[in-house]
Description:
The complex is a heterodimer.
Chain A: H1 9-26, H2 28-44, H3 46-52, H4 54-83, H5 86-91, H6 97-127, H7 133-160, H8 164-186, H9 192-199, H10 202-214, H11 221-244
Chain B: H1 3-6, E1 8-19, E2 22-33, E3 37-41, H2 48-56, E4 63-68, E5 71-72, H3 77-82, E6 84-87, H4 99-109, H5 116-125, H6 141-152, E7 159-163, H7 171-186, E8 190-194, H8 198-204, E9 207-212, E10 215-220, H9 222-229, H10 233-238, H11 246-254
Parallel strand pairs in B: 3-8, 3-9, 6-7, 7-8
Antiparallel strand pairs in B: 1-2, 1-4, 4-5, 9-10
Amino acid sequence: MEETIIPKTSTVLAALLKADFTTLWRNRRAVVLVFLVPIVILVSWKGLVEKMGGAFALSNSLTYGLIAIGLMGYTNSIARDRDKGIFQRLRVAPAPNWTIMMSRIFVQLSMIALVTTAIFVVGFDYDKITLTPAGYALTYLTAIVGGAVYLALGQVIVGLIKNPETVNSTSRLVYFTFVIVGMFGGMGMLGKQVEQMTQWSPYGTVKTIMAAGMIPGSWTMDTTNALLVTVGYTIVFAVIGIKNFKWNTK
Amino acid sequence: MDNNQSESILKVSDLCVQYGTFKAVKEVSFDVRKGEIFGLLGPNGAGKTSTLSAIEGLIKYQSGTVIVDGHNAKEKPLYARAAMGVQLQSTSFQSELKVSEILQLFAGIYGVKLTNEKLTAILKDISLEDAAGKRFGQLSGGQQQRVSLVISTIHNPRLVLLDEPTTGLDPQSRRQLWERIEAIRERGHAVVLTTHSMEEAESVCDRIGIIDHGKMITIDTPQALIEKHKNDPEVIAVSRKGRVTLEDVFIALTGKEVRA
């Protein structure tokens, strides 16, 4: 009997990453849309920067970017490729299932780093917002932690819904709910109760840890609690999303 | 059959697949030998794709064993998958990727080093040397099937599984694909294919297994099946051409009613 050779996991991951990054690059028009909303917010909130502080504007803007990546980018690409049978073709190859998803998630984490950088650049260039080196570094970390919540929430959507059109419309609906309730509720325009709910929602906790990450000296016990709640949301969403996820739509 | 062909590359024993309470595959057993093309025939919903999916590792089977090139598919799934090449019924690749990029992706996944020369040679072999820069979706049905088939054999697997590979192809493309499948056999690989075409089964397959309602009804060579059943009253009753064909035997064994 001839020896069966199993490819190295690193070789498999490298091939998947190359293909997934190429796909992302060819979809750059869709990528631009992910950048658009947070940058528009940053630019249009110029007047608020002096009043509320640079960290407030950056953290809000970044939160919308993270929501867009998790809910629109990740969710829709998974739903579309699952419907087309792309995952099934990969799964009959000697690639462990986790490598297929890890490659997708890594691409999204790179997007998070890109969006964060773009927001820093626009914030500096247009609103003259600067952070300390520690602030920049910590914000990249908190953006990854915050982005994980929305990727996990996106996983819940593709886990519970099979039809790609329904996934698309649901993710848009959830996205706009987050944007509207987060923006107006977070500012207290929808009443005290909604403001408090927003503060401890996935939107609010992510915004809190990112704002504190930008000014590390302002990190308080409330920020630590927000971080713990964020991690908690991620775990709960990921468990629900992964447990219910089906690799095909049939 | 010579010694070369007696080595079993795929051995399926008492395979059972269940979806909820529905038993899709019931104690199906068969083996496929080196240098053999084995056809799996059956009406719609008979259990062909479920059987293939269980072998491929896409669905969990309730009981039975699947041994691919000596590897138990349940205990060593990665080894079993590395030993087989698969063409699914409806294969799709990322529409943003070009043909050359798709080949490179799967070469990487199977751990095959694909140099530019090798890539060009592969594309030339399937008469697609000018299509390297095209997206998969821009290819014709026949071209897509050729790319799909070459990907399933890119790692030189001992077993190739083809789920309805010629569906939707014109006669020329279908004939060309048959030749390619026969070439796989000539290289000493074992091939399992599912098909609804009796002409295809008769022309290409060395042995066929007819599956219906999840059960394997019979396994034999196409000619032996015709010989065995040609005098059955049910077969004669459905015969249309004055001589008994494989299709007549198939219809007599699986019934005339149309399946969903």
